[in-house]
Amino acid sequence: MNEQFVLRQRPVGLPSRDHLELVRSARPELTVQDELLLRTRYLSLDPYMYGRMAATQAYAAPVELGEVIVGEAVSEVLESSSGLYSPGDLVTSRAGWQRYSVAPANTVNRVPDNGLSPTTALGVLGMPGFTAYAAMTAFGRPTAGETVAVAAATGPVGSMAGQLARLAGARVIGVAGGEQKRNLLLEWGFDVALDHRSPYFSARLQAAAPEGIDVYLESVGGAVWQAVLPLLNAHARVPVIGLVSNYNGTSEPAPAGLGERIMRTVLQKRLSLQGFVVGEFPPELWQRFHAELTGWVKDGSIRYQEHLLDDFTRAPEIFVDMLRGNNLGKTIVRV
Amino acid sequence: MNEQFVLRQRPVGLPSRDHLELVRSARPELTVQDELLLRTRYLSLDPYMYGRMAATQAYAAPVELGEVIVGEAVSEVLESSSGLYSPGDLVTSRAGWQRYSVAPANTVNRVPDNGLSPTTALGVLGMPGFTAYAAMTAFGRPTAGETVAVAAATGPVGSMAGQLARLAGARVIGVAGGEQKRNLLLEWGFDVALDHRSPYFSARLQAAAPEGIDVYLESVGGAVWQAVLPLLNAHARVPVIGLVSNYNGTSEPAPAGLGERIMRTVLQKRLSLQGFVVGEFPPELWQRFHAELTGWVKDGSIRYQEHLLDDFTRAPEIFVDMLRGNNLGKTIVRV
Fold first, then answer.
1. Distance from first CA to last CA of chain A, Å, rounded?
2. Given B58, B262, B271, which is nearest A269 (Cβ)?
3. What is the ipTM of this complex?
4. Which residues of B touch A280 (CB under 8 A)?
5. Which of A63, A150, A176, B269 is most solvent-facing, going by the fewest CB within 10 Å?
């Protein structure tokens, strides 16, 4: 039998079992040539999925009611009607929140045989790592001596962005929630690690950036953004790749005047704000990402943390925990 | 005798005679080699000056209390200790709000002998026109078939930006205050001209942009920006070159949540917001601007409007009128 999480109702605020329902159905079968029957081994849970559930994303079709929740996975090929893959092969695919799926062979990618855990293809060397790489190399472009601030810095995007900035010679301030995450950031070599839950966060950020902030990777919004904004230097770059605080139920209402403050800062500091969606980067950059980063991940120049959980039937609760920041590193469900 | 407007007090809100005081002093004299004694013929009044008075600009030193208000002017050389200029020559200089000034010869530029009024060196072919040219060619980059919206569209920046966009084949929506300005925009060939003072402005803007907006030149902020924001297309570009509504006393307080809406739109639409200051563009672009645009201005491909007023002693009132939008075109005081 297959087990799938389907969308029953669009969430407003955090999703629950009212919105995500576990349904059982027959295992799918191959019907045409060049298809693969896949068994999900590792399911990636990422903040962007919230936008697909809530239909708040302008850049991608939402999950429709009754449909399986979208998501990347590392899957094992069980059956193949394609010459490209054989049973036993591991591939990444957009399998979604389900145990079994069928995919055209040309929509999956072989998990590289690089000596690393296959789960890295969902995190540090997958879509989240690539998002950080692309945003920082194509737009953030930190240089030696600059100060870079990264939100959600232990997450798979933030950790890559921060470490790339360090490798570029920048001074890096990592922002995350709680002492355990702070310690992880310091262990990874972040110059400063700040807990955004501290009542002194804003003052500490200011103290940690005596020369201002040149690049800020925005993935959370809310209080972190409000604290960063006045510290941005002339010509600072702000790649915007997510706004988790908008939909994890933790953000306070923004103070009045924030919109005007943003625009005034854009003008006065000649900021660049640029929104990014990973799917729009050119494929060549993805190749370059792998060519450059695989070695660095293997030799420990780029560190990463994965948060593996075992119970697929608890995926909704694991997802909400991740949105709330109760994870440590890349959240992956072992199916 | 010289007459100068000096800063007595920093304005909060619109400036008045309490802030800008007319003082008389001896006419300055040449003291060293390579200097020019200049008589101001035309003084340019531009919104950015407010930031220098109020010390709200991060990118330029404010006018200090007791100092002459800064500003570009077309001046006549009265005396010269430089081989480069002779009495009678017309130059542009940063003379400020005064009748006479002394400037090193290498800080002025000869007014081009191009058959146009010398006042064009302060507007359509001066700093405002160049601001629009640089922001649109270096960043906005409208292409044929795209929709471009321009705020303060009869002003010297907006009019240049809108007409450049039309020449690039874009559909251009000009926004300005009042019927007279609307008519001017239509006469200039703007595809749509909207009065932002109309209670139906927001609905009319939406109706005028059925395919959304690809480029928005931001110079006013406030209600126009709030109406444009939801209409921006994927990958829209928003050069930010001014925010007049922030300091002309006309803007309503922004609604709560605007800051979050801006950031969400940046992410969802993958917007580029980019602040610009004219002084930071490379000098080569200034040369290219003149090479490309002078002919277009002369043959009427680029239209412009100047608002010339005569009484230098009324400069503060003329300046406030301009901030309020009571001018029609580039505001210049004939001294």
1. 14
2. B58
3. 0.90
4. 270
5. B269
Contact B254 A234 (CB under 8 A): no
Mean pLDDT over A256-274 rounds to 93
Residue of B nearest to A230 (CA): B58
DSSP annotation of B247 reads: T
How far apart (Å, rounded) are the C-alpha atoms in residues A38 and A87? 9
Q: What whole-number distance in Å separates Cα of residue A118 and Cα of residue A49?
A: 21
Which B-chain residues 200-259 have CB contacts (< 8 A) with chain A? 218, 221, 225, 234, 240-243, 246, 253-254, 256-259
**B253/A258 Cβ within 8 A:** no
Beta carbon pairs, A and B, within 8 Å: 118
Residue B58 is predicted with a pLDDT of 62
A275 in reach of chain B (CB within 8 A) = yes
- Contact list, B273 vs chain A (CB under 8 Å): 266, 271-274
Helix axes B283-298, B127-135, angle to 10 degrees: 110
Do A92 and A74 form a contact (C-beta atoms < 8 A)? yes
Whether A2-123+304-334 shares its CATH topology with A127-278 is answered no
Q: Which residues of B touch A273 (CB under 8 A)?
A: 266, 271-274
Task: Assess whether pLDDT exceeds 70 at residue A250.
Answer: no
Could you tell me the pTM of the whole model? 0.92
What is the residue-averaged pLDDT of chain A?
Answer: 94
3 state DSSP class of B10:
coil
CATH 3.40.50.2300 is right for the domain spanning A127-278: no
Helices (H), B168-307: 179-187, 201-208, 222-228, 258-268, 283-298
Note the pLDDT of residue B277.
86
Domain ranges of chain B: 2-123+304-334, 127-278
In angstroms, the separation between the Cα of residue B267 and the nearest Cα of chain A is 4
Q: Are B100 and B39 in contact (CB under 8 A)?
A: yes
Q: Report yes or no: A236 and A216 within 8 Å, Cβ to Cβ.
A: yes
Lowest mean pLDDT among A35-49, A165-179, B3-17, B237-251: B237-251
Joined tokens for residue A251: 């953000």
B142-161 burial, b if ≥16 CB within 10 A, otherwise e? Answer: beeebbbbbbbbbbbbbbbb
pLDDT (0 to 100) of residue B243: 85
Radius of gyration of chain A (CA): 20
Phi and psi torsions of B283, nearest 5°? -60, -30
Domain A2-123+304-334 has CATH 3.90.180.10: yes
Looking at the complex, does the CB of residue B289 fall below 8 Å from at least one CB of chain A? no
How does pLDDT run along chain B (335 residues), one tens digit per residue?
999 999 999 998 899 999 999 999 999 999 999 999 999 999 999 999 998 999 876 667 899 999 999 999 999 999 999 999 999 999 999 999 999 999 999 999 999 999 999 999 999 999 999 999 999 999 999 999 999 999 999 999 999 999 999 999 999 999 999 999 999 999 999 999 999 999 999 999 999 999 999 999 999 888 999 999 999 999 999 999 988 877 666 666 777 789 999 999 999 999 999 998 888 888 899 999 999 999 999 999 999 999 999 999 999 999 999 999 999 999 999 99
Contacts for A263 with CB less than 8 Å, ≥ 6 apart: B218, B221, B225, B240, B243, B262
Q: Which residues of B touch A263 (CB under 8 A)?
A: 218, 221, 225, 240, 243, 262
CA distance A88 to A79: 9
Q: Which of B83, B70, B73 is nearest to B38 (CA)?
A: B73
CA gap A3, A10 in Å, rounded: 20
